[in-house]
């Protein structure tokens, strides 16, 4: 066994660089390329790897020392054949000097290569990362940590900008990263500005004192907004959404609606396009059962429902509610209009009970009475799809020989991509559009 003196290899243009971390102690076994010490200049942090495998027998430097190329830092009792006569090259590393690891600019691509930790309600590591998206340069600029600590943090998905360093000059050490993870696991996660991640594993929005910029007033959110907000948030985070946009020609449908309007009014019923859409949607749901379904909680099965209860998003002074019209497949246009009028009135009067809002299989959100061209509704999970209706407009449409005035309604369907493929998504919207363009198909 030969003892080899380890010296600082060629570290480029750096001279008199401070030792900020000693990563080994006498008695430790090291392999080739294991990091021995961390150096920090005013421009970069770098780790010095071991050129040989063996056992550390002496550490000749202390934290805070200044070192340059050739400075003797420690002795290694070289194991096996890797041993080389130390006296041959007493003042230099045995092997061609490995380049110091990652001075600052090199850290950026290193961090950038690894995908940023994905927020996940289920992953404690991702919760630890909760703060703001990790930007490699930002990390380099704002967090004081050695490459090995950065690598450790990256491995566990911890954003170093959220970790308080307890080392010299606020340097973040491995123990700080471990403490940050423990804090998250025990529910004490503190993010910058005192904001709390809410356990959702997503970066919190920074807290801002808006009154610094002008006068403000603070109003508490209404009860319904608070409740629906939680559901929307959960759906937004859990459901991989895709929104398919489409449009359909409802000229004939609307003519039929107008033809029926007077008769309907005599029965106290207001016919709007929505009820026709409900019927067309249910027919399409029968053609595409994956849209009238839910995923099992473990995500391994799809539960197809053989009943057709359509939730209708209703705008009320207190917020959004989604009462459910039951058995739409078994009801005619008048009965559906009656149901719709009743639940809308109940919703606006704040008189909906839990049973009125339970059991939906698919939701429609209609903004067509207000305006807009297209929007991306949020799936009403655990349902897997939702339709958004926008305002129909008269448009010139080419019919093969001339432009004809047609009433065209834009609509969209957002769906859970785990349950529904893109091709299925557009087949569904095309089918709904075809039914709405020619209502006769609904009786086939
Ligand atoms: N294109 C053109 N006109 C439309 C239309 C469309 N897609 N949809 C409705 N209209 C017309 C109706 O025909 C009616 O006009 P007339 O009085 O001349 O017949 C007018 O717009 C108003 O309709 P309405 O909104 O009262 O009735 P509706 O059946 O279309 O909708 C309801 C009922 C409860 C869905 C609706 O009142 C509502 O609350 N919509 C908002 C839903 C919402 O907020 N969704 C957002 C959820 S995400 O935040």
Automatic annotation (TrEMBL):
Per the entry, the cofactor note is: Binds 1 lipoyl cofactor covalently.
- Please tell me whether the keyword Transferase is annotated for this protein: yes
Residue span(s) of domain Peripheral subunit-binding (PSBD): 144-181
Query: What residue spans carry the Pro residues bias annotation?
Result: 93-103
Q: What does this protein do?
A: The pyruvate dehydrogenase complex catalyzes the overall conversion of pyruvate to acetyl-CoA and CO(2). It contains multiple copies of three enzymatic components: pyruvate dehydrogenase (E1), dihydrolipoamide acetyltransferase (E2) and lipoamide dehydrogenase (E3).
* GN (gene name): aceF
* Top-rank taxon, per record: Bacteria
Determine if Acyltransferase is one of this entry's keywords.
yes
Organism name = Thiomicrorhabdus sediminis
Swiss-Prot/TrEMBL cofactor(s) = (R)-lipoate
The catalytic activity, as recorded, is: N(6)-[(R)-dihydrolipoyl]-L-lysyl-[protein] + acetyl-CoA = N(6)-[(R)-S(8)-acetyldihydrolipoyl]-L-lysyl-[protein] + CoA
User: Which family does the similarity line name?
Assistant: Belongs to the 2-oxoacid dehydrogenase family.
- What name is this protein filed under? Acetyltransferase component of pyruvate dehydrogenase complex
Q: How does it assemble?
A: Forms a 24-polypeptide structural core with octahedral symmetry.
Q: Where is the signal peptide?
A: none
Pfam families given for it? 2-oxoacid_dh, Biotin_lipoyl, E3_binding
> Annotated Gene Ontology MF terms?
dihydrolipoyllysine-residue acetyltransferase activity; lipoic acid binding
A Gene Ontology BP annotation from the UniProt entry: pyruvate decarboxylation to acetyl-CoA
What is any one of the record's Gene Ontology cellular component terms?
A: pyruvate dehydrogenase complex
Q: Where is this region: Disordered?
A: 82-145
* Lipoyl-binding domain: residues covered: 3-77
Stretches of Low complexity bias are at: 104-133
Q: Which UniProt keywords apply?
A: Acyltransferase, Lipoyl, Repeat, Transferase
Enzyme Commission numbers on file: 2.3.1.12
Which InterPro entries does this one have?
2-oxoA_DH_lipoyl-BS (IPR003016), 2-oxoacid_DH_actylTfrase (IPR001078), 2-oxoacid_DH_E2_comp (IPR050743), AcTrfase_Pyrv_DH_cplx (IPR006256), Biotin_lipoyl (IPR000089), CAT-like_dom_sf (IPR023213), E3-bd_dom_sf (IPR036625), PSBD (IPR004167)
């Amino acid at each position: 066994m030969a003892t080899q003196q380890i010296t600082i290899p060629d570290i480029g243009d750096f001279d008199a660089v401070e030792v900020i971390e000693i990563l080994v102690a006498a008695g430790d076994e090291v392999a080739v390329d294991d990091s021995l010490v961390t150096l920090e200049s005013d421009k970069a942090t770098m780790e010095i790897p071991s050129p040989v495998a063996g056992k550390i027998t002496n550490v000749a430097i202390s934290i805070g020392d200044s070192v340059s190329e050739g400075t003797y830092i420690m002795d290694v009792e070289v194991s096996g054949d890797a041993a080389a006569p130390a006296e041959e090259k007493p003042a230099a590393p045995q092997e061609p000097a490995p380049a110091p690891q990652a001075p600052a600019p090199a850290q950026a691509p290193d961090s950038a290569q690894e995908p940023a930790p994905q927020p996940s309600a289920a992953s404690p590591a991702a919760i630890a990362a909760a703060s703001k998206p990790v930007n490699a340069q930002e990390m380099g600029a704002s967090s004081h940590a050695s490459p090995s600590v950065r690598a450790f943090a990256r491995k566990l998905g911890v954003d170093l900008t959220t970790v308080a360093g307890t080392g010299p000059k606020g340097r973040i050490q491995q123990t700080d990263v471990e403490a940050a993870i423990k804090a998250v696991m025990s529910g004490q996660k503190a993010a910058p500005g005192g904001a709390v991640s809410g356990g959702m594993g997503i970066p919190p929005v920074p807290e801002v004192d808006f009154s610094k910029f002008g006068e403000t007033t603070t109003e508490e959110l209404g009860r319904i907004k608070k409740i629906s907000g939680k559901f929307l948030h959960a759906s937004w985070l859990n459901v991989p959404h895709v929104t398919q946009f489409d449009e359909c020609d409802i000229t004939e449908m609307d003519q039929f609606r107008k033809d029926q309007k007077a008769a309907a009014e005599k029965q106290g019923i207001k016919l709007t396009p929505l009820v026709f859409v409900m019927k067309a949607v249910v027919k399409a749901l029968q053609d595409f059962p994956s849209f009238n379904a839910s995923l099992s909680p473990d995500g391994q099965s799809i539960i197809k429902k053989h009943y057709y209860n359509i939730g209708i998003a209703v705008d009320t002074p207190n917020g959004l509610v989604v009462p459910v019209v039951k058995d739409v497949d078994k009801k005619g246009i008048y009965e559906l209009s009656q149901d719709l009028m009743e639940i809308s009135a109940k919703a606006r009067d704040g008189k909906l009970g839990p049973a009125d809002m339970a059991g939906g299989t698919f939701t429609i959100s209609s903004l067509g009475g207000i305006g807009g061209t297209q929007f991306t509704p949020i799936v009403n999970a655990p349902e897997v799809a939702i339709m958004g209706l926008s305002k129909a407009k008269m448009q010139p449409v080419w019919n093969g020989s001339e432009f004809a005035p047609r009433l065209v309604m834009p609509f969209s369907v957002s769906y859970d991509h785990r349950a529904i493929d893109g091709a299925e998504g557009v087949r569904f919207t095309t089918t709904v559009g075809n039914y709405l363009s020619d209502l006769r198909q609904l009786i086939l």
